[in-house]
Amino acid sequence: MNTEERIQAIILLKEGYSSREVVNKLSKPGKKIHHTSILRLKKKYKETESIKNKQISGWPRKLTERDERTVIWRILKDECNTVSEVQRSLKIHDSIEVNSNMVRRILKKKWICCKSETKKTPAIKKTLENPVRIRQKIQILDCRRLK
User: Fold this and answer.
1) pLDDT, tens digit, for every residue of 90-114?
2) What is residue 120's predicted lDDT score, i.e. its pLDDT?
């Protein structure tokens, strides 16, 4: 339910309508609201005096979206070639201490494959479809070949 429907439901419940009557008044063709949704909304409103959803739990993000883009740019500009170089770069330039696994996770999320560093192969493989379109698209690599 969107915010307007929640407000209308709370108003109708305050006027004394039952949850099933509220559903009948708010339901539209093609969009049916279940009466238990109204009951949960009523319970939440009694507890919090608000119709907003609760805040999602979890640890706060260590890197912002901007920091993640910075990591990608440093790799694409050949400032960094290994995960450990990216890690050191973040620590020196941005004063952010991150684990190497976090850097790998960012690269995996942005479709840049990486693996453990060896003397024979570089640690980070990257290709670009077109240098002008760096911001728009990073070509997906076949990660199975890298293993």
Assistant:
1) 889 888 888 888 888 887 777 666 5
2) 47
Amino acid at 15: E
Burial, 95: exposed, middle or buried (Cβ in 10 Å; 0-12, 13-18, 19+)?
Answer: exposed
Q: Alpha carbon 22 to chain centroid distance?
A: 34
| Prediction pTM value | 0.42
- Please answer whether residues 70 and 53 qualify as being in contact, where contact means their C-beta atoms are separated by less than 8 angstroms: no
Do 122 and 95 contact (CB within 8 A), yes or no? Answer: no
Amino acid at the residue 10: I
Tell me the β-bridge partners of 124: 114
For residue 112, which of 87, 133, 81 has the smallest C-alpha distance? 81
Average pLDDT of the chain to the nearest whole number? 76
The predicted structure's pLDDT at residue 124: 52
Measured distance CA(51)–CA(77) in Å, rounded: 47
- Establish if 59 belongs to a structural domain: no
Distance from C-alpha of 81 to C-alpha of 121, rounded to nearest angstrom: 11
The range of the structural domain enclosing residue 39 comes to 3-48
**Domains held by the chain: number:** 2
Residues 36 and 79 in one domain: no
